[in-house]
Structures are given as C-alpha cells and as structure tokens.
Amino acid sequence: MKLVPFLLMLPQQAAEATGGDQGVINELVSRFNEGGGWMWPVLICLIIGLAIAFERIITLNMADINTRKFILKVKRALDEGGVPAAEEICAKQRGPVASVFQAGLLRADEGVEAAEKAVVSYGSIEMSFLERGLVWLSLFISVAPMLGFLGTVIGMIRAFDAIEQAGDISPSLVAGGIKVALLTTAFGLIVAVILQFFYNYAVSKIDRLVAEMEDASIELIDSLVLMKSGRPITEDRSAESIGESTGERVAESSADSDSTTGSDPSKTSV
C-alpha cells in the first residue's frame, strides 16, 4: 500500500468508525486531492506548526501560577526562617517567577546589588525559555501562504501550457490549472490564519508572565532591603489602621456625648 493513498483514506475510515458526517470529510479529502502536490507542503506546515503551538501552550500554562500567593509565602519565609527558608519554597515551586526568586536569593548573602543583578540576568534567561519555538511558529505562518502562492503560480503555468498545446482557449483546458491555483492559495491562507491565532495567544501569555515576573522581582528586592535593615517584611498594617480608626471614632463619639450633656442644663438639674 502506498503512503499517500493510505493517509488520504484515514479521515474516511475515522468517519466510518465514528458514524460522523462522511460528506464533509469526503469533500475535504476530494479538495485536498484536487489541489495537487503543493497541498502536502502546506499540510506539513500546519502539522508542525500545531505541534509547536500545543507544546508552547502546555508549557506556558504549567508555568502560570498564583504569583501573589507565592510572593506572600516567600515574604513570610524570609521573616520566619530567613533566606534558606525562602530558597526552599522557591525550589519546590515551578515557573519563571520561582526560578528568578531562587537566583536572587542564592546571591542575597553577597548584598542586595548582587541579588538584583542575578534577578535581571536570570530573568532574561527565563524570557528566552518562554519564547522558545515561537520563531519556528512564525516561520510556518509566513511559509504556508508562500507555498500556496507558489502552487498558484504552478497551476497558472500549467493552464497556459494547456492553452499553448491545444492552440485554442477553452474553459475546460484552463479549469484544472486554475482550480489548483485557487485551492493551494486558499489552503495556505487557512493554515496561516490558524497558526496565527495560536501564535498571538502564546505571545499574550508570555507578555503577562513577563510582567508578573518583573513586578515580583521588584517586590523581592524590596523585601531583601527590609530584611537587611532589620525591619519586618510582612508587617500587617491593615489591623493597626483599623484599630486606630476605631479608637478615634470611639473618642470622638464620647467627646460629642460629653459636650452634649454639658451644654443641656435641663438634663443635669433635678
């Protein structure tokens, strides 16, 4: 059995096994066959591009964590157990934020400036890891329409060759070449649109992760500065502010009641 006919029969066999709509599958397979040999390079671009896109999406989703909760855990660890306790938390956590934190904490004993330089350097490395593979995905987005246009040019050349050999312009002679031209162009554009959607999703995800990583790095450096100065990092100022405001309100209310009682002689006289 030849490979190409076998691959073309797989969608039909899947439709028969699942009881799906065979008309749509058969139509797609028929159009693919009519497109000629230039449909295969475009299909390869789609398959490889989707593989890269799915790998990036899975990796980025695994790297996405609750950054605010993680930062609070690291701050509490710095308050309670110092740098070693914070390093242990970072080692157990996945994601670029934890890796950048760990790199900074490993240099914390050398000073805040050394920790800041380590955070900046390792942040650039983490960005390159997040963007890995997107260059190839962008390549397939650009190549797929070009291959489709190349199939268009080939189809038009065949159409003019048929006209030249026949010595007459007949719709039936040029229809085959024009059909190949239109099908390859359409398929190339469809592949580019599909891959562009996944590319934009991955880029937006990376931008959000990088923004979180930068904000978290600033908080880490500020926490190290507080720790070096001997001040608490996770000081709960909300409870103090609530207590102060409550005390002020009680004092004001008591003062108002005293002034009201003193100003009304009827209430004090018997």
Characterization of this structure:
- The chain has 270 residues and is mostly helical.
- Among the domains are: 23-62 and 133-211; 66-130.
- The chain is built from ten helices and no strands.
- The chain has helices at residues 3-18, 22-34, 39-63, 67-92, 96-106, 112-130, 134-166, 171-228, 237-263, 265-268.
- It is rod-shaped and about 95 Å long.
- It starts with a helix and ends with a helix.
What order do the helices and strands come in, and which of them pair?
Elements (H helix, E strand, L loop, with lengths): L2 H16 L3 H13 L4 H25 L3 H26 L3 H11 L5 H19 L3 H33 L4 H58 L8 H27 L1 H4 L2
State the main characteristics.
270 residues, mainly alpha, disordered C terminus, rod-shaped, 10 helices, 0% strand
Listing every helix as H and every strand as E from the N terminus to the C terminus, the arrangement reads: HHHHHHHHHH
Give the number of DSSP strands. 0
Content-based structural category: mainly alpha
Distance between the termini: 117 Å
* Percent helix range: over 70%
Mean pLDDT figure: 77
Our count of helices gives 10
User: What low-confidence regions span 5 or more consecutive residues with pLDDT below 50?
Assistant: 236-251, 259-270
Brief sketch in words of this structure:
Helix content is 86%, strand content 0%. By secondary structure, it is an all-alpha fold.
